[in-house]
Design brief:
The complex is a heterodimer of chains A (about 425) and B (about 80). Chain A contains 15 helices and 16 strands. Chain A has about 425 residues and is α/β, with parallel strands linked by helices. Chain A has 2 domains: about 260 residues, 3-Layer(aba) Sandwich (Peroxisomal Thiolase, Chain A, domain 1); about 150 residues, Thiolase/Chalcone synthase (Peroxisomal Thiolase, Chain A, domain 1). In chain A, the strands form 3 sheets. Chain A has an 11-stranded mixed sheet with strand order 5-4-6-8-1-9-16-15-10-11-13, with helices on both faces. A 3-stranded mixed sheet of chain A has the order 2-3-7. The longest helix of chain A is centred in the N-terminal third of the chain and has 16 residues. The radius of gyration of chain A is 20 Å and the shape is globular. Chain A starts with a strand and ends with a helix. With about 80 residues, chain B is mainly α. Chain B has a single domain, classed as Non-ribosomal Peptide Synthetase Peptidyl Carrier Protein, Chain A (Orthogonal Bundle), CATH 1.10.1200. Helix content of chain B is about 55%, strand content about 0%. In chain B, helix 1 packs across helix 2 and helix 1 packs across helix 3. Classes of the chains: A alpha/beta (about 425), B mainly alpha (about 80). Chains A and B meet through helix 3 of A and helix 2 of B.
Chain lengths: ~425, ~80
């Protein structure tokens, strides 16, 4: 029997909350971060609706942390103050998670701590912004660029900040990247390679080029409701028309039961299973079989019947084909139990945070478990399926026991994780 | 005159690269290393100073430089 793996810390910086408590309040109130993009893009794009992190100041955010050793804050400042936006936001959510896991007053063996950066192409906008200057004067390109354009820059920076010397790497899985990171962290601990693993979902800092690409492939919504941005993102509603881009940096600390018990830190939730499978498909379309397999195999790993799951955080991206396919897969997996299964889509509030979406929704799931509610579904006026138990416009009080969280990505990447309410907390404390 | 100006520019760049530094401890005979600059910080001081002065000097020209004054001298020679 494998020893349990749980979550002992979380941190988040998003369009609807710049820490765990404000994020949880926003979830409960169904607050959406989606609006007209504040900064005009160059060139003009046909969709300029998004849920962006606004007015971010790294130094100000860092100075707001209480009870973090001054020496750590100084190190974070040195490593981050001149770094790109995506690195700065990762540092902020990671410091919150490290603090939340009470790791600043512990000294875990460095070699037993792992680090997974769940993010791909996170330097696109940083590079895009350098191009015009580079074409004029290549000589003036900062030597730091050679470090910064690599995704692994974040591995170096965060490992130096937290003195991490176990396994560390970057994972990518398109829109399922966050879940892939969580599942790989879970596996590292199960395999006994590390006792603690920091998993960071990186902000998708899309360049105008990337945004236009998503528009041209037909994946991005926001056209029908171009003058009503608050209505543009509508997962599982008949008027859905594609995803709305969101930004968030999100971080979780996974830990073995033994390590958490030794430190007397409770699990906020326990990971029961996690599964990644492929459709063998190079295109963007979802596949009901792959999605079903991801859910079934995560359940099988967890040793739980589908009927034990009482809440599902859907991938629900507001994509017509994506929502329809997921609904079909959910109906297959849960069959008659769907009447007892609460469903919502966090992307309706945060937008689609792409690489970090899996981690954002994992955290949203745990916060709803912790605080006993199901967050509202925004803009779900006419559901595409009548027999499912979607949360409405208001939050519902509900004590979640077993939850599932789905993420699916381009390239036929299907993932699902199963979580249990703070099990060790109940058993040990 | 030119050397003084170049030194001022270099000092400003050093402060930008090492924002936590107390500007009073910068002096021309010191090595950037002594100020806490690592190898990339030092490369960056060179690149940014060139940009600030509108110069394009082959990086090889800085190979023999051993302190801030050496850097200022190479830059000044090219600035005139």
């Amino acid at each position: 029997m494998n020893q349990p793996v749980g979550i002992t810390g979380m941190g988040i910086l998003s369009s609807i909350g710049d820490d765990l408590s404000t994020f949880s309040i926003s979830l409960r109130n169904g607050k959406s971060g989606i609006k007209q993009m504040p900064g005009k893009k160059e060139p003009d794009l046909s969709v300029e609706i998004a849920a962006e992190i606004e007015k971010f100041s790294f130094l100000e955010k860092l100075s707001q942390f209480k009870n973090v050793p001054e020496e750590k804050l100084q190190k974070a400042r040195r490593l981050g103050q001149r770094a790109p936006f995506v690195v700065q936001t990762s540092i902020i959510s990671a410091v919150e998670a490290w603090k939340n896991a009470q790791l600043f007053n512990a000294s875990p063996a460095s070699e037993r701590v792992g680090l997974i950066i769940a993010g791909q192409n996170s330097t696109q906008n940083y590079q895009y912004n350098l191009i015009s200057k580079f074409r004029e004067n290549p000589e003036y390109l900062s030597p730091r660029y050679a470090l910064e354009f690599l995704e692994t820059n974040q591995v170096g920076i965060l490992s130096e900040l937290f003195d991490i010397k176990g396994e560390g790497f970057v994972v990518g899985g398109a829109s399922a990247t966050g879940n892939v990171g969580i599942i790989k962290g879970f596996h590292s601990i199960l395999a006994g390679l590390v006792d603690i693993c920091l998993v960071v979902g990186v902000v998708a800092d899309l360049s105008p080029l990337d945004i236009q690409g998503f528009i041209n492939i037909g994946a991005m919504g926001g056209k029908k409701y171009f003058n009503q941005p608050e209505k543009a993102c509508r997962p599982f509603d008949t008027q859905h028309e594609g995803f709305i881009y969101g930004q968030a940096s999100a971080c979780v600390i996974l830990e073995s039961e033994l390590s958490a018990c030794k430190r007397s830190v409770p699990f906020q939730a326990e990971i029961k299973g996690g599964s990644v499978n492929l459709d063998s498909n190079s295109s963007a379309n979802p596949n009901v079989n792959g999605e079903r397999k991801a859910m079934v195999s995560a359940l099988k790993q967890s040793g739980l019947p589908a009927s034990d799951v009482d809440y599902l955080n859907t991938h629900g991206s507001s994509s017509p084909l994506g929502d329809k396919t997921e609904v079909e897969a959910i109906c297959d997996v849960f069959s008659s139990h769907t009447s007892d299964l609460w469903l919502n889509a966090t992307k309706g509030l945060t937008g689609h945070c792409l690489y970090s979406a899996g981690v954002v929704e994992f955290i949203a799931t745990i916060l709803q478990m912790r605080d006993g509610f199901i967050h509202p579904n925004k803009n779900l006026e006419e559901p595409i399926h009548k027999g499912l138990k979607f949360c409405g416009e208001e939050a519902v009080d509900h004590r979640i026991n077993i939850a599932m969280s789905n993420s699916f990505g381009f390239g036929g990447i299907n993932t699902s994780v199963v979580l249990k309410h703070g099990a060790v907390y109940d058993a040990v404390y | 005159m030119a050397k003084e100006y170049v030194y001022e520019v270099v000092k400003k760049v050093i402060m930008e690269v090492l924002p936590d530094l107390d500007s009073d401890i910068i002096s021309i005979e010191k090595q950037l290393k002594d100020l806490g600059a690592n190898s990339i910080d030092r490369m960056e001081v060179v690149t940014m100073s060139m940009e600030e002065l509108g110069l394009k000097i082959p990086l090889m020209s800085f190979a023999q430089v051993s302190n801030i004054e050496g850097l200022v001298d190479v830059l000044t020679e090219n600035y005139n």
